[in-house]
Amino acid sequence: MKKGFKYDFTLLQILLIPTCVALSVVGYQISQMLKLPLYFDIAGLSIAALLGGPWIAALTAVLNHTVNGMIYPTALPFMPVSIAIGIQVGICANKGMLKGPIRTAIVILLMSLIGTIVSTPIVIILFGGVTGSTTDILTAAFLQSGDDILNAVFNQTFIVGLVNNTLNLGLAYFIVTRISPRYLSKTNYGSKFIKPNKKVYDLDGEVK
Amino acid sequence: MENKKSLYPTTKFWMLLFMFITIALVPGYKYQYAILPLVLILALFSGVIKQVTLNFLRSTFILCIVIFLMQGIFYPGETILFSVGFIDVYQEGIMMSLSLTSKIVAISSLVILFFATTKIKDIVFSLEKMGLSPKATYVILSTLQIIPALSAKSETIMEAQSSRGMETEGNILVRLKTLLPVFTPLVLSSLEATEERVLTLEARAFSSTAKRTQIYTVEKRAIDYILAAVAIIAIILFFVLRGGL
User: Fold this and answer.
1) What is the ipTM of this complex?
2) How many Cα atoms within 13 Å fall on the side-chain side of residue A152?
3) B150 partner at 20 to 30 Å CA-CA among A32, A45, A148, B109?
4) Which chain B residues are closer than 8 Å to A127 by Cβ?
5) Distances in whole angstroms, Cα of residue B63 to Cα of each of A102, A129, A157, A207, B160
6) What is the pLDDT of residues A155-185, one digit of tens each?
7) Is A58 an interface residue toward B (CB < 8 Å)?
8) How many CB atoms lie within 10 A of CB A113?
């Protein structure tokens, strides 16, 4: 299947966007319902990146933050963070970087690094180093131990991002590998997640 | 709210742009903090006061409190304003938080007011009139329809799985494990639904490039032109005066 900016916007691919945005919002709701300290709000974005590729993921990020921004305007400035992560995961998945634990670990490290580099200046300039979530305690702890605000926010975002991205990407990968091959083959980037069928059938449809 | 009373979305956009520019560039914090009561008064007259207050408290209020705490305690300052136990609160930190939070409060209250008083339908219509592709506008509208549907579905799945013995309480590992039996069916079923939606849309000539007619329209009125012009002139004047000073 042809890939790239020109070919990625088929109707099936475009319809991935609303579904994945909704999954992100619902993922956030579920993690609140289960009282989890981490938010599964980029699992939807990761699914968009794995199936739809980097550009669909970038649009998912834009729409996701716009929808969140209607109720939580403080989510709006963080749009570039999700766009960057979406594009990066999409490219990495397309290049086959999710095969094997070492490569996957590199992808997660990259995700956290990119997310941290993009979000740290936003957090410091706009919000004075505060994100409004419970992980601010970690920033305060770094500040207390003598770090300056740049280092404190950077370390906090990186550590939280590492845990968060591992779980989100793990969840997304787990689910994507369970989607029916019929659907995966229709998306532009999903076909590499189809598990090869090892059973060999004879003409009567019986397993040989 | 009656549609006739509402302004055209782009008119509101120009007014918002003027507000954002002044909020970002006017020094101090008194002007910025004056916007919150203004927003609340406008919300009161628009009948959305409850929604605006609730969203504001949920999104911005706690964040601002944390900013005050963090900056007040950790900002490198010299003048100690007051001390609570062993914690010193510095004046410089408080000044810094005031200038940060005033902008956050002003901008986020305006954004909340904008989305509370503007129908998404109207925004999408004006976007399409400005030349955005119908595919894009469909994606925006259907996102807002899918979210509550998927949210309801996730609750159904959760109940169904707990009736099969899934534990939703316990230590963090137990709760983390419940994510899989909730999330997997949710994603799988909603993706299958996309496939069906493609067929439905194509059966209704969604990808056709012929000119579309609108069943829902918003008209610009005289007041829209006047207010938009005033806002644009105000933006230009603001920059001219600032440059001259």
Assistant:
1) 0.85
2) 25
3) B109
4) 63, 67, 100, 104
5) 38, 11, 17, 61, 36
6) 999 999 999 999 999 999 999 999 988 899 9
7) no
8) 14
